[in-house]
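Reposting from the mailing list since nobody answered there.

I have sequence plus structure tokens for a pair of proteins and want to know whether others read the tokens the same way I do. The first protein:
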Amino acid sequence: MLRSLKDLEHYTLYASDGEIGTVVNFLLDDASWTVRYLVAETNGNSGGRDVLITPLAFREVDWATRCFRLALTRDKVRNSPGIDTNQPVSRQHELDYHRYFGYAHYWGGSGIWGSGTYPTMLAGGMWDEAEASSLGQDVDRPGDRHLRSAAEVRGYHIQGTDGPIGHIIDFIVDDETWEVRYLVIDTTNGWFGKKVLVEPRWAREVSWEDGKIHFDLTRKAINDSPPWNPTAAINRKYEVQLYDYYGRPVYWHTEAVLECAAPPVGPVI
């Protein structure tokens, strides 16, 4: 199911031995547009600091009661590697994190989660020190993937071919793969505050330094796309309408055949 990332903030986190804290942010993979970690603000009994929680740690997600149940103890979370969520997270920190928890790493495979599409497919794997060491030789190369704060990217400006068209106010994610399926764009900048969806993989360029995402689409094309209703669930009928409007191939047919969707390519509007 597709869900608003903003709506997942403030979900309660439960370790196997009790409540651990609340979700306050998310870290996005800036290459694959996938949520790699939740940022949790732990309560006083667990150290009172921000920690990272990977979807690999989920034992159960209870959408009705707005809570994530983890296959971890509170002490295990409390003693996890520290993190400065105000800075991009390097691969080296991820190596330390996965080593600590004993999780298999997700990078280096053909899918967005190792060799597959879902974090559950990777959750049963184990940390491989030899493989991690070989990967670790290149962790400091310029241009390596980093993780970005969703709170930071929310607010990035959207640039059409003929000028700015608005800014990101939210992300729509798949609650099984944790891919960011759509950016929610507020076109308030002269377009009467309409809210529309755009696939991030359609972007021509992302300027992380300037906080801008460039699309080969005109401002009018983006503004005239099917409007997004935040009070209604996004269903397949709406997605078909959206992809038809932009003239892009739908992602779910590719996923069914190849397991992992390839970035859609379509004509400039």
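The second protein, same order (residues first, tokens after):
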Amino acid sequence: MDNLEYRPNVGVMVVNKHGKVWLGKRIPKAKHHDLIKRAWQMPQGGVDEGENLQAAALRELYEETGIKSVTLLGQSDGWIKYDIPKELVGQVLSGKFKGQKQMWYCYRFDGDDSEINLQPTEEPAEFEAWRWEDVDKLVDLIVEFKREVYINVTKQFKQYTL
């Protein structure tokens, strides 16, 4: 595991006009360990080779939520890393990475809830449900190994939820 790298990734916090944050409930996959089944999370995803990070964030946001009507509010002050649990190495992240390094973006949602579509493309949906949540409740809803990331992200972006 020590010789594996971190996968470049982007994460997106979407805040609505009421200061609530968008969360999706992941679709459980049989091949994945119980640690990640039915986990709530904000949209996130990999960065393609040579892809601009903000473009990747907007692409992932659309692919996972159907959301396009957003305005950029902020960007994390650097990469935020997390390691996946040892028992998941080889099962997730194509088996090539020990975790992810994420650049986070915060956007204001300028549309209405009818814009949200959990399967806007031909790709399989990643979420089975979604909801708007208070920023202070996010960390308790996230899988254990991502909690430090969410603590960091919510500290950096909480100002946009007030």
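Reply #1 (J.P.):
I read it the same way you do. The first strand starts at residue 5 and ends at 15.
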